[in-house]
C-alpha cells in the first residue's frame, strides 16, 4: 500500500530540488517555436572567439570561414574529428503575440560547454553534453524585427592530449565513447508562458493503490503572491480519453514553489513489454481565467523490483533478457538521421527475444526513448559517466559526476521504459569508490520509485542495489564476463557456480571458480555482460557506406579500413582456405553465434541467476565485432538467429562429457530444461546420430518440465566403436507437438601411433613424460652431446628462468638438431603505464612477440591449414567446436612462419594511452601463428602456443596434434 511516508518523502525531495539548479527536464511544453534547421557555424580552431567577440552578430558575419550546419547534428559530420571551440549563429523571428509572455530557450543537449548570447547580450552558460537546459530570454527578444542567437560551444577534447580550453583538457569531461559528438546535437526550441511557469513535472505511480503521484515545480515570475488554478488531466494516449481530472487552487509565492498531489485512476492498465500502455499527464496553470502555461508528459503504470532474488515487473516474475546498445549510427554518429533506424533496432531486439536494452553509458535522445516507451522495451538508464578510469581524475570530477546523475535522472524519470538506474560501471578509482553511497542517495532523492544499481560489474566492492522507495541496499551479483568463443564444460561450470557456496558447488559437481568480481553467495545475480564477436560482412556493409554514408565520419572510415585490410589478408594469406572474404566473415559469424547461444544457455541453467545482458545489439568504434546487427541494423544472420533461439521462453541445454572422446568410450549426456513459462509434463526424446544420419543411441521418457530450471536427463551412451562426428538431438514435445529442440556435437577419434624411434624430452610440467610413458614411447633425457637425429620435445613452466637450458637447446639446434617447444615460457601482454604492451619470449635465440588472441568481445580466427600436423582433425577452417579445449589464448606475431595455424584479428586498443581507446577507433588488422618452425643453424626449433600440455590424456585433440607433430618432425629428421 502507498504509505503517507512516501508522500512526505516526495514533498521533502521536491522542496529540496526547487532550491537546486537542476530544474530543466525534457517535457512537452504547449506553446513552443522550434529553432531546429539551418544554422551557421565557425570552427574557432585557434580559440580566438572570445577576444574577437564573435558572439556579436556583426563580428560573426564579418568572418570568411562561416559554414552551414543542420541543428540538431554533431559537428563531426561536417568537420572531421574536430576538437575545440565553435561559434553557432541563427537568425529568427518571434510572433508579436508572445510580446507580453515569459519566454525561455530550451536546448535538449549541447556538447560540452555552451555559452549562450541573444542579440549581443549574455544569456547564460551550461556545462554537460547530454542533458537539457534552458534560460529565460524575453527581456532580450525583439518582437518587431529579427533576433540573432549565438553560442560559443567548447566541445569535448578526446584525442588531442596537448589541448586545454577553458581549463578542460583531454578526457576530463564525461563523454560517451561513440564519437566526438560535439555541438548542438539535440533540438532547440522557444517556450512561452504567462507569469507562472512549470519548471518540472514528475509522475510516478503506485500499483497497490492505483494512485498517480504528481509532483510539480513551479516558478511564479510575478513580484506578488498569485492565485492560480492547477488543472491536472490524465489521458489515455491511444484513445485520447480523459480518465481522471483534478483541480487545485493554489497561492504561489514569488519565485520557486512545489506542489504534490495524488490522483486515483479506476482500473488502470499496466505498462509492460507485452502491452506498453501509456498515459499522459497534462498540467495547466490558469490565472484569472487565462492559461498561463501547460506541460504534458507520458507515463505508465509499472513497477520493476526484486523479490526473493528474482526480478519482478508489475508483481509478475520476469526473467530479464537484455542487450547492449552502443548507440553508434552510420551517418548521424550519435543519433539516426531517420527514426526508422531506431525503430528497426528496437523491433529487431524484441523479435530476438530481448525484453530490455542497456544503452551504453549515455542517455539516449528523447525520440529514441519515446519509441522505447511506445514499442515496449525495458531500458536501463545511466548517466554519461565512463568507466575503467574515464573520465580522468581532476578536481572537477566529483562535481561533474553528481551533476550528470542528477540531470540525467530528472530528464527521464517519467519514462515507463526506464526501470532502473545504473550509476557506475567497473570502478577502480578511490574518489569514485568513496562516492558510491553518496551518489546512490542522490539518485534516490531524485527518483524514489526505481531500482538503483550502484555499480555494474561489482569491481569496487561488489554491486549493491536499492529497491524502490528504499534507502537500504541489498547485495547484488552483477557479473561481467567474456570467455571468448570456447564455451567449454569448465566455462559452463563457471556460469553455473554464480551464487552458490563452495559446498553447494561441490555437491552439484560444479568445477572451477565462478565468474565475476566480488560475487557473493545466495544473493540476486545478474550477468549484465556476456557475449563474443565477429566481423560484419565488410563487402556488403562498405558498399552501403559508399552509397549512403558520410566519408568523413568515423564509422565510414573504420569500416573501410578494416574491410580493405581484411580483404588483403584473406586473399594473400588464406586464399587456399576461403574462396572470398565473405566466406571468412560468415564463418566468424557462425562461431560468434554458437558462443552467444552457449553463454546464454549456461546463464539460464543457473537457477540463481535472474537475467543477462548480451553484448551487443550493434557494435561501434573499437567494439566493432560485438553486434548481432551490423551498423546499418541488418542482422548477422547466424548470430541473430542462434541468439534468438537461445532467448526463447522454453529451451533445452545439452552437454556432453567429454567433448571429444576415443573409440570405445561411452559419452555422458546431460539435458537441462529451462522454462520461463508454466510447468508441464512432456516427452523428452534424445537421439545420437552419426555423420550419415544413422541413429546409434536413443532415450525417450516422460519428464516434469518445471518452471525455471530442471534436470531432465543424465545418461550415457553405449560404447562408441567408430571414429567420426556425432550429433545429439534433444526434443521436448507435448501431445506430439514439438515445444523446443536443441542439438550439440561431439567427436570420437582413433589416436595416431607414435614412431618407435626414441625421442628426448625436457619436461618441467610432469604431464609430457607421463603421457609419452602411457603411449609406450621410448624416451631419453636431453644432454649436450645428444645425437642430432633424436628430436627433443620440451615442456617448460611459465615464469621461470631457463636461460642455461635454452642455451643448451640452442647449441643442439645450431649443429643440426630439432627442438619442439610444446610449451615455452613468455611474458604475457599487460597494461603498463596506460599502454597495452606485447608479450615476449624469454631466453630464446630469436625474438618472438606474443599477443592475446582469445577474442573477448571481438572475433579472432585461428585458421587451420591442411597439414600433416592436423591429420584426423578438421582442416582448412577456423578452430572451433572440436578444437575448443586446445585453441590458443596467446599467439606469436612478428615472426616468419609457415601458415599452419594463422591468426587473423585487429587490435582493439591501438598502441596508445588508455584514455584515447574509446575514441580512436579500432587498430590495424594483424596476423600471427600458433605453431611454426624457425631455422637455427643447421637445425630448427618448433614453437607452439596451443593449449596442448594441459590437455594431454584429457582431450584426444591435444594427443593427436602432439603425436602428429612428433611424427612429422621425426620424418624431417630422417630425411
UniProtKB/TrEMBL annotation:
UniProt keyword annotations, A-Z: Glycosidase, Hydrolase, Signal
Lineage, broadest ranks: Bacteria, Pseudomonadati, Pseudomonadota, Gammaproteobacteria, Alteromonadales
Domain Glycosyl hydrolases family 2 sugar binding: 68-190
Entry-linked Pfam families: Glyco_hydro_2 (PF00703), Glyco_hydro_2_C (PF02836), Glyco_hydro_2_N (PF02837)
Protein's recorded name: Glycosyl hydrolases family 2, TIM barrel domain
Signal peptide interval: 1-25
One of the GO BP terms on file: carbohydrate metabolic process
Ranges for domain Glycoside hydrolase family 2 catalytic: 305-460
Family per similarity comment: Belongs to the glycosyl hydrolase 2 family.
GO molecular function: hydrolase activity, hydrolyzing O-glycosyl compounds
Coiled-coil residues: none
SUPFAM superfamilies: (Trans)glycosidases (SSF51445), beta-Galactosidase/glucuronidase domain (SSF49303), Galactose-binding domain-like (SSF49785)
